[in-house]
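G.,

No rush on this.
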Amino acid sequence: MAIETKQEYGIRELVKRVEAILSGFAERISDRGCSYDRAYLDHAISKAILRYIKSYAESHTSIQLIGTHQPTSLASIYISQKFCAYTSIRSFESVDDMEESFTRALQRSAYCKGNNLLGLNLANEEEYLMVLGLPAAGKTTFLKYIGSEALRYPKSRYKYDLLPVFLPMRRFCCNTDTLLLAIAEEFERCGFPEPQELAVWMLERGELLILIDGLNESVLSHKQLSHLVTEFVSTYPRNRYIVSSRLNCYENSLGQFLEVELLPWGDLHVQEYIHKWCTVNQIGINGLTQDARQDAADDPASEAAQRCWKLLQINDIARELAKSPLSLSLLCLLLCDRRYSIPSNVSGLYKKSINLILEEQVIKQHLNCTEVVNNLSTDILELILIDIAYRGFEKHQLEFTLEVITNYLQDLLGNYLQKFQELSIPMILEVFQQLGICKIINSTDGMVFTFSHIAFQEYFVALYVYRHHKTKSLVTHHLSDRHWQNVFLFLAGMSNGNVEELLLDMEAQITTYINQPKLNKLLVWLERSAAYATGDFKDVSKRIIALFVARPRFLTKLAPALSLMRVLTIARKLYEMFDASLDFDRVFEAELSLSLSHALDFDSVTEINLASQLCNQLEQALVSVEFDSGQINFQNLRSKLDTLYAQAPNYEQSIEVREQFRSQISHTWAQTLYLPLDSNHLSLLEIENLENYLYANLLMVQCKNAAIAISPVTWNKIESRIFRVAHKS
C-alpha cells in the first residue's frame, strides 16, 4: 500500500508539472475564441494529462520478462548500457547534410569519441542521439529507460523537464504518415482537445522528448525515413530526440545526430542481469513482495543466479549468447528450469525456450480452464504462430488488428482436422496474451496483436521457411534484403543436416548480382592478383584484400562515392571472417578523403596529394600480402603520381581542365596497376549490385558460422569460389 501511495503521489506531481506547461495552450485556445468553456477546457486537459501519464507508464516503464508472470518496473531490471562512437560510412541526402554532420562531429566534446560511453550521459549531453545495435541488443529498452527517467524529473538523473513521446516505427510511418500525425494520435488517444494543434504547440516550444524506435521496422525505405526525420527535426529543433535502428539497416545518415553503437555486455553486466532476472522471476513464482523476500532466511534467487553464472563460465557458446539481453533472458529461463542443457546456437536457444514457454501455458490451460481444451498442444500453438509470423513478415507487417488475426485463425484452423476446428479462437488469443513472446495491446487502431520482440517473429518466419521447404524462394526473393538478415541466420542455425542446401542456393543467387561485364572484369583482376600473391593468407582473403586496391574510385558524385565506401566496409567485415591480421583504418581514412576531394571539387594539387597518400597507406597496410610486383607495384604507382604534380592545374582554370586532370589521375592509377580501364565508370545499378554481392557473401559466411555442422568438403568448395567469376561447366 505504501508503494502504491508513493506512486500515486509521483503521478499527481507529474500531472501538476504538465498542467503548468499546458496552461499556455489553454490560454491560446481560449484567446482564439473557440467554443470551449475555459473551465471545461482546463478539466479536459487535466484529465487527458493523467490518462497520458498512466498510459505511458503502463506501456513503456514496465517490462514483462520472458518466463515471468507479472510485469516488473523497468528500473528494477535495467542494466546501465555502454556505447562506442559509430564511424562507418553513410549516405547523405546532400553535400550540405554531410557538411553539417562533419561540423557537428568536430564541435562535439571528446567524451563522445570514446569506446566506453554511458548511455544516460549521452542522453543528457546530446540533443539528437542515434542509437545503433545488433538484433536484441537492448536498443528499445534503452529508449524506454530514458523515457521513464524523463517522467520522474526532477528526481531522476535525466536533466530535462520534458514530456516523453514513444513512437515505435512498426506502428507509425507505415505509408506516408508523418511524425507530427503520430504524436497527435498519441495525444488524441488520451483525450486531449485539439490534439494536432497541441502537438505543434509543444513541438514549437521544445517541450518534448521524442523517442523514435526501430527505423528498421518501418515499411518505408531508410532513405525515406532519413528524409522524414531530418526534415521534422529541422522544423522542430528545440526538442530532444533519440532514434534507434539496427546496424545493418542504417544507410542514410541523419546528419546532425550523434551516432553511437551499443556495446555487447561484459561479465559484470551479465552477472548483474542474471541476479536481477532471478530475483524478479522468484517473486513472480512465489507471489512474494520485495520486503517479504528480503526478510526470508534464504535467498533462492541468489542461489539460482550463482548456478546460472557457473554454467555460463564453463560453456563458451553460452557466454557468447549471454552478451545479448534477450538471449540472456532466454538462457536464464532454461538454466533455472534444470531440465534443459545449454543450446548449440541462437536458433537452438529460441527453440528450447519457446517450447518451454508454450508447454507451461498448455499445462496451465489444461489445469485451470473450464472449457474443453484437450486438443490444445504446443504443436498447434507453434503452427499458428509461425503462420501468423510469416504472413505478416512477407508484407513487412509487425502488428495485426484482432480482426485480421481472427480471420487468420479461422482460415488456419479450418484447413486442419475437425478436432483442431473445435478450438476456441478467444481461448487461443487468451493463451497468446500470457505467453510473453507475443502480446495484445491497445493502439490507435484498437486492439492489435504483435510479437513482443521482432526477433521472435523472425525466428518463427525461419521455422516456417524450414518446415515448408521454402529455402529457394527465400534466397531468390530476399537474399539482398537486409530486413531478412536475421531470418537467414535463424534458418542456418536450425537447418541440421541440410545447411549445405541453403549455402549452395545462396551461392547461386550471389552470382546473379555480379553477372555484368564491368563487374566480371573486376573479379577476374582480383583472382589473377591473388593467384600471384605469396603472403601467408588464405586464397579467399587475398582476393578480398585485392578489392581494396581495385575498388572503383575517383568518382565525381558524392552518392556513388559514399556507396563504394560502404562496399569497402562490408569487404572488411568479410575479410575478418577469414583473417584478422591487417589494419585498414588508415586506408579507410585516405579513401574517404580522396572520395570527398572529387565529390566536393577540391583543388587539383590536393587531389593528387590525397591519391599519393592513399597509395602510401595501401602499401603499408598490405606489405605482408606480397603481391606480384610486376602487377601491383605501389612504388611505381607513387612515382607516376609524382610526375603529375607539375601538371596540376590551379583552381582558377576551367572546370573542364580540372576534370581532365582528374581523369589523368584515374587513368594513371588504373594503367599502372593493370586494372580494367572502365572500372571507374560504374553506374549506380552496378554499384548497388556490387554492394549486394559483398553483403550476400558476408551473410553466407555468417550462415555457415551459425550452423551446428557442415561438411568441410562442401564448404571448402564454396569458399574457393568466393570472389571468383562463375565458370559454366
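When you get to it, here's the other one too:
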Amino acid sequence: MISARPKLSLAALVLASTAAFGFAGHFAATSFIRDQQARHLDELTEVVMRRSEFAVDFATASLDELAGRKLATCDPASLQAIRLHVYQRSAVKDVRLVNSDGSVICSAYSETLEFDKGWVDRADMSTSRDGRLLLFRVEQFGGDALGVLRDVGDNRALVAILGINANLFDIMPAELRAHSEVQLALDNGAQLGEFTLDPDKALPHAVAFEKSSARLPLRTVIRVDKTALSTWNSEAYWPAMAVSLALGVLFGVLLSRTRRTEGPVADLDRGLARGEFTPYFQPIFELRTGQIRGCEILARWVREDGSVVPPMNFIPLAESSGRIQGMTWQILGRALSDLQPQLKADKEFKLSFNVVPKHLLSAGFVETLRGTVTAARISARQIVVEVTERDELEDLARAAAVVNELRDYGFRVAIDDVGVGHSGLSRLKGLGANTIKIDKFFVDTITVDASTTTIVEMLVALARDLHMTMVAEGIETEDQVHALIACGVDEGQGYLVAPPLPFGKFAELLEKRSSTVSAGAPQDVELVA
C-alpha cells in the first residue's frame, strides 16, 4: 500500500498538469477565435466605410470639376455639359444647382425630381469635419439616395445625387450572410442603405461592430447573430488548443534555461548585424502584354541555417522596436547591388521598396536615400518609394513636403494599400504621389462583385484626373487581369506571374522573358512556381 502512493502521486500530478494545460488551452483557443472573429468583422466594417468614403470623394471630385469649368448655372448649354458629365459617371445619378438654404434651382435631369419624396433644408444637413461638404439623405420612391453638397459661391451650391446600391454592402462571409445586416447611416441617424437577406428577420441577440468616418459624417454598422457567430470559424479551436499546449511546454523549457535571457528584439539585432535580411523580388508587369516593367522588393529573414522567416513573424516587431529603418536600408542596398546591371541596361525598369510613415518622416531620410542610390550609380527616377498605410500619416503637410522633395530629386512615390488603409482620396491628392496601388482586397472580388468594379473605375478616373498611374496588387487569375484592363488599370503584380522570388530565380525569370521578346514570341502571362 505504501509503495503504491508514489505511483498515485505521479498519476495525480500528470492528471493535474493535463487538466491545467487543458483549461489554459480551452481559454486560449476561445479567446483566439473570438479575437479573430472580432478583427475580421472590424475590418469588414472598415471596408464598408472606405467604400462609402470613396463614393463621396468621387462625387466631390465631380462637383469640383464642374465648378472649375464654370458650369454652376441653369442655362441650357451648362445643363447639357452637366448631363454629359453625369452620363460618364455611373455612380452619380444627378447634379442639381441649389440656393444657399438648400432649395433646388434646377437639375441636370429634371425628371429625377419627380422621384423625390422629400428634400431637407440646409440646417438639417450633416457637415464634414473640414466644413466644405454637407451630406444628407434624399428620400426617393424606389430607394433613398445620398446628397453631397458643395458651395460654389456665396449664394449657390452644387449637389451630387449618389445612388446607394445595396451590393456596396454585400461583403459578409457566406456563413454569416443570412444571419447579419450591414448598414450605412449619417451621424444624425438618417439611414442611407442596408444589406440583409431577410429584412423581416429580426436579430434579437446580435453583436454590433461600428465605425465612424474621421472625415465625413458617416457611420457604418455590422450586426451579427450571436448563435451564428459562435459556430463561425470554429475549426480553429483544436489547432489553437495544440498551439497553447506547445507554448506551455516551450515556456517550461525556456524557464529551465535561465542562462538565456535574450528576447526576440535581440534576435532582430543579431540578424541585422549578420546581414540576414535580404530582398525578395516580385515582378510588376503590363496587364495587356505580361511584359515585366519593374519589381517590388519585400523583406525576408534568411537565417544562417538557410531557413526563411515569413515577414509577418518579424515585420510588426521591427516596426514597433524601430529596427525597420535599418532593415529597410539593408535590403535596399542589397537589391540595388543585385539589380544594378538590369537597371543600367533598361532605364525604364523601376525598383519599388516599402517605407512606413515614421521612416518617411524621420530626420535624414531623403539624404540617406540619395546617398544609397548615388553610391549604387542608379538613376533616382528608377526608384519608387512606396508609403505603406499600416500606420496613419499624422502630419500630412510634412509628409507632402518630403514627397515633394523626393520628386524634385527624381524619385517616384507610390501609396500602398489604397482602399483599405488610412488615407482618403483627398489625402492622396494632398500628398502629391505619382502612383496608387490598389489593395488585393479589391482584386480578389473584382470578378464576382459589381460594386468592386465601380470602386476601381472611380479610382482610375480620379488617378487620371490627378495624373497618377495605377498598379493592382495580388493578381492571381487571368479573369482578374481582364477585369482590371476593362476598368482602365495598366499594370499589376501577383502570383499569376510570380510570387516574391530570391534574386537568382528572379534573374532567371527576367532572362526568360527577355529571350521570349528577342525571339519575337508572344508573352503569355504565366505562373512561376
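Confidence is low (pLDDT under 50) at residues 255-261, 525-529. The first strand starts at residue 92 and ends at 99.

Enjoy the weekend,
O.
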